[in-house]
Amino acid sequence: MEPSGHLAEALRRAGYKLTAPRKAIVQVLEQEGKHLSSNEVLVLGRRIYPLLSRATVYRTLELLTNLGLIRPILLNDTAQRYVNGEGGHHHLVCSVCGAVFEFERCGIDRLAAELAERFDFRIRSHLLEFYGICRTCQTHA
Amino acid sequence: MEPSGHLAEALRRAGYKLTAPRKAIVQVLEQEGKHLSSNEVLVLGRRIYPLLSRATVYRTLELLTNLGLIRPILLNDTAQRYVNGEGGHHHLVCSVCGAVFEFERCGIDRLAAELAERFDFRIRSHLLEFYGICRTCQTHA
DNA sequence: TCATGTATTGAGACAATTTCTCATTTGGGT
DNA sequence: ACCCAAATGAGAAATTGTCTCAATACATGA
Ligand SMILES: [Zn+2]
Ligand SMILES: [Zn+2]
Ligand SMILES: [Zn+2]
Ligand SMILES: [Zn+2]
Question: Are strands B36-37 and A70-74 parallel, antiparallel or unpaired?
Fold first, then answer.
């Protein structure tokens, strides 16, 4: 998830204190892969800063969300998961087994620019998910 | 949400019993607008079938989800909300205030066909969300 | 360096949402 | 009308998210 120190730097620039719990959380977000739930952030964060509390995880994730640095998404779980707030995220989600496949290119820059103008909206990222039935679940049917 | 009786008919065709609780739930989904949470389905469903239990709502929503007839999404809430499992859903979501704007056309049919072929995936719907800062929150900054 | 004031934190109570269990009921094929 | 697997309701339990408040730690300036 982006260059290391990216999130901490953005927090500092926005005028927030760079505390030990926050450092642990952003380090987890930057190091570990994608799609982390708040509970996963808590568990991983405690390896770095054992006192870390659940409330602080939620508070920091909300903070980063409001700054547009991360964004919540929904996958199979019932839990919210967080992805990088910049750029694009592209999934194929199987409605039967919950499997998630990723792809790279989507070609919606044109549409994004159009919408940004029409709604006077400053776009920072997007999520494109196709929902349907994966190969395996098609044959098992 | 689609022609009336659509969901009930699909359930029946898939071999599931058409019970009173299920009829109430699909009627709610078809009549009421979009983005219903499970609790909203429960409350509205009880107007039709007062005995309706929370567990049955969750069970039926999961059933419909696995059949690809509806799909869960995430909005401002922490609760899962359900939308029609066919076609497209398009949102602009403000990361600051949580406001959600909708738009109609997206023009990704080409990409959808390409991915369906590449992943051997039977696509039934898609969700396209742009994430950023709305007009109001831009000025209040 | 050190004192100061405020933002931030941890702990746990609390609330909301989702899942599970199991005895009972019911739809639909016969 | 009968039968039985499928489905249900009720509530316990688990998971996820929010809130409160006294204690702490960061950043700023002396
Ligand atoms: Zn994209
Ligand atoms: Zn699948
Ligand atoms: Zn679309
Ligand atoms: Zn806004």
Answer: unpaired
Instruction: Give all domains of chain B, ordered by start, each with its CATH number.
Output: 6-82 (1.10.10.10), 87-139 (3.30.1490.190)
Q: What pLDDT digit, counting tens, does each position of A12-57 carry?
A: 999 999 999 999 999 999 998 779 999 999 999 999 999 999 999 9
Report how far residue A123's alpha carbon sits from residue A85's, in angstroms, rounded to the nearest whole number.
10
Write down the pTM of the prediction. 0.91
Q: Interior CA angle at B8 toward B3 and B11, to 5°?
A: 125
Nearest-Cα distance to chain B for A61, in Å, is 12
> What's the pLDDT tens digit per position in A87-122?
999 999 999 888 899 999 999 999 999 999 999 999
Amino acid at B102: E
SS3 labels along B85-131: CCEEEEEEEECCCCCEEECCCCCCHHHHHHHHHHHCCEEEEEEEEEE
Closest CA to B25 of B7, B9, B13, B10: B7
Inter-chain CB proximity B123 and A68 less than 8 Å: no
Residue nearest to nucleotide D18 (CA to C1'): A55
Cβ contact B12 with chain D strand, < 7 A: no
